[in-house]
Amino acid sequence: MNQVEFDRIYGKVPADKESEKIKAKIKKVSDKDWYKERLFRFIPILEWLPKYDFKKNLIFDFIGGITVGIMHVPQGMAYATLAGVEPVYGLYSSFFAATIYLFFGTSRHISVGTFAVASMMVGAVRFKLIPEQVDSVRAEISLDHNFLNISDIEYPEEISETFNQDYGVMTLMSTLTLGVGIIQLLMGIFRLSFLTTYISDQLISGYTTATALHVLVSQLNKILGLKLPRYSGNGTIFLMLRDMFLNIHNTNLMTLGISVFGLILLYVGKEYINPMVKKRIVIPIPFDLILIVIGIAFSSTFEIKKDYNVKIVNNIPRGLPSPSFPRLDLLPQLIFDCIPIAIICYMFVVSLGKLFSRKHGYKIDPTQELFALGITEIVSSILPVYPAGAALSRSSVCEASGVRSQLYNVFSGTLILTVIIWIGPVVEPLPMCILSCIVIISLKSLLLQVTQLPRLWKVSKFDFAIWTVSFLSTVSTTVTFGLFISLSFVLFTIVLRQQWPKFQVLGTNETKTVFASKKKYSNLNGISSEIILLKFESPLHFVNVSKFLDVLNSVLENPGEELEEVKIGSSAEKGKKITILDCSAISFVDTMGVDAIVQMYTVFERKKTRLIFAGFCSAVLETLDQSGSFKIINKDAVFPSVIEAINNIGL
Fold first, then answer.
1. Other residues' Cβ atoms within 10 Å of the Cβ of residue 523
2. Tell me: the pLDDT tens digits for 73-84?
3. Which residues is 504 bridged to in the sheet?
4. Fewer beta carbons within 10 Å, N or C terminal of the chain?
5. What residues does each domain of the chain span?
6. Which tens digits make up the pLDDT trace of 281-314?
């Protein structure tokens, strides 16, 4: 039974015509329920809040909200320093992002707000466009000018003339947030969420490990109490390490002592005490907050800023900031910085959202997450904030504390708002090195991703290469340029994998019902002395067409010679009159692929040798039909399966 007979007997359903598809869409749009469904998809809270079981779920959301809110405060302040802004702006960013996401997000468990990777990327943009004041840096550090020429650090003219000090920095941040939101919104409108499938887990792992290393190095000078210039551009890590070693003799011993105490407290508390506590209660002890309280008390009691020159948080304004519109004229200058930040923020939200949704048996909408993030960034950009995303540590605690919905953000937001309005000035004596300790300890899980390398080497050399290139390119350049290099390399590996398709010579058992590689299974035999059975294990397109043609020509013209392992993994025997090509692994073909199939069929016919195609999927059959290939390829050369092809031959 060939493919034509198979289609006739089993009633192949014809493909829908375009006119019928349009009519179906018009009918759907004319239904009022369609608009209701779209509204609920766009604003998910309208669907789930009326169904919310307050008696059953509110207590879990309350506990989770307070727990996450307690984490938001120290992390918001700490990550703000990574972004190069005052700590209070991290609180603003966390509060407004979480509040807006509550209405539009589809994940129940992720915690949207400040997080280390995005903060580092934002900080790179901030210090590239608005460097720290050179004069103050020159007065505060002591370096050998043979190694570092401070006068070489310049302000970009188009930015430095436009901005002035703090107002300029936050105007830049708000404009950057707007740009990130616009990109995410456009990605949602054009349904581009699928593009993130090209960002593999290995790329994310290598990239975030390198970014964590950037963050770690940027915090070391604060741990040591050194006042050093901030760099932007390639080689930032190496320049900062050089400056630290040259200036190590200027270490502030009080700052170092506080930092050592903070690191030990956080490490012991999170690695040893909390695991024991979690066996009895779900909520972990907030060691970040405990350290902040200790730091404030110690700083206030001993006046460490005055007596020991320890840098503290200083002024935190009380109350909410006044809204102001971003500078739209700066968007063209920021667009290439906005793109990678938008992608990374979205990737963290979707990856964490999928992780928790699979665990708890619900679905998230990746496209809606683009809308949710885009709207969150755009709306909050009228305030002094910077781009937000999902933090792994907060999201994990949120999920572990048993939250049931995004309603937990009402409680966490209330706690953050309380700090902003009333408690802010209390935090002013906090040593900045305490915030650096919080940042460094939070990097542990990211830095430990390097332990994945041995497994990647065993499983896939391509994945190992992707991780390594992502890591090295990001470490040696910038977090923005490193992402572009990593993405380019991933696409390059995809092309390479497709360019080297695998051919297998298949054998079978006595009943001719099992087919597998003869090279891998020694007890399988050839179909017969007259037949060779090959399997092409890849889509067929312009990248690998030449390999496809080379292998089939080798089978046809030199059947007695052993073919390369990369092509078919075995040798063909002499005297083959029929070649069956198992096409079940060909998921699609392009124009060059279609031409190659027709070309090889005609070449085999000319040589008086049969070439039989078996197992084409419906998409490939439709492409071949639309191209007119079946006017050349005889119907007896195409079969729905290898078994049908063998039965037709009469074996």
1. 7
2. 999 999 999 999
3. 535
4. C
5. 51-140+166-494, 500-649
6. 877 899 999 999 999 999 999 999 999 999 999 8
